[in-house]
Automatic annotation (TrEMBL):
Listed GO MF terms: antiporter activity
Region Disordered, annotated ranges: 333-357
Basic and acidic residues biased stretches: 343-357
Pfam families referenced in this protein's UniProt entry, alphabetically: TPT (PF03151)
Residue spans crossing the bilayer: 21-41, 61-81, 93-111, 117-141, 153-170, 176-198, 210-229, 244-264, 298-315
Keyword presence, Transmembrane helix: yes
Localisation: Membrane
Protein name per the record: Plastidic phosphate translocator-like protein1
Record's keyword terms, sorted: Membrane, Transmembrane, Transmembrane helix
Amino acid sequence: MGRDGGGGVAGGMSDSVLRKVLLSYFYVAVWIFLSFSVIVYNKYILDPKMYNWPFPISLTMVHMGFCSSLAVALVRVLRVVDLPTSPSMTPQFYTSSVVPIGALYAMSLWFSNSAYIYLSVSFIQMLKALMPVAVYSIGVLFKKETFRSSSMLNMLSISFGVAIAAYGEARFDVRGVALQLAAVAFEATRLVLIQILLTSKGISLNPITSLYYVAPCCFCFLLVPWAFVELPRLRAVGTFQPDFFVFGTNSLCAFALNLAVFLLVGKTSALTMNVAGVVKDWLLIAFSWSVIRDTVTPINLFGYGIAFLGVGYYNHVKLQALKAKEAQKKATQADEEAGSLLQERDGHSDRKSDNQA
């Protein structure tokens, strides 16, 4: 009977672990699908050979306006999530910490969406492999990362792989490459500033509260370039009638992607999202080649393969660092518990000695 009971417990534990694993894979699949959909959808809208609406600032503003409205509804009306209270989001704190992040996010989205007009989806994904390089370099610059020769060598290998991929690109466009590299630089700076301006001060924002604070700010920043760059062109077109189904579903996908990020990071980890991002990039490259009929050369794949190995090693190092940190945390907790037990035992012994005396 004892063995049967133990087997039942073990079976229950196995079922629980299996359920968690399956849920993790489900969250990853949802995030990959939505991220994949937003990228392909944006490409479809902006590419002159497809939907032919080459107004990336306007598209980004539509996304930010839509996300702002839904975020306000979720936070203020439905109260799905709570706003941070310690420390509170005062106007001064918002101006000094959130506004710079909103400005960088606006620039990143503007430039990354603009790149879809000039470059193929596959080549853009290859250029995005430079994100760890940018994050590490800017982190070292702001003293949030420690400079290590091994890490820098890995960053150089990623850069070398991307350079080879760029050399083999059949549809290379200098303007598009410059826009995408600028987008990577702005996004990397934003990620580092989030650590400096928010995380270090105890502010933790999930994607819904992030959109609640950042999306309106981002929308306002985009108004300035929009008024000078795209508004005159939109007035010149004049006859364009926006398709509410296309732009509505596109904006809904963008908002759903932010919710999927919240779900994925909350239920797994940010590192899981990074690894899933590598899988998504390969899927996008395959889709771009097989469905959109973008040209992917052997040199492209060889160069991206080198960059892929570098990014994989980067994620491996991050995982090992997280494991070491978690092990150290558990060891510290065990030492503290042992110390507390020892103090209690000594106190009990002292009281017993006093009673005997």
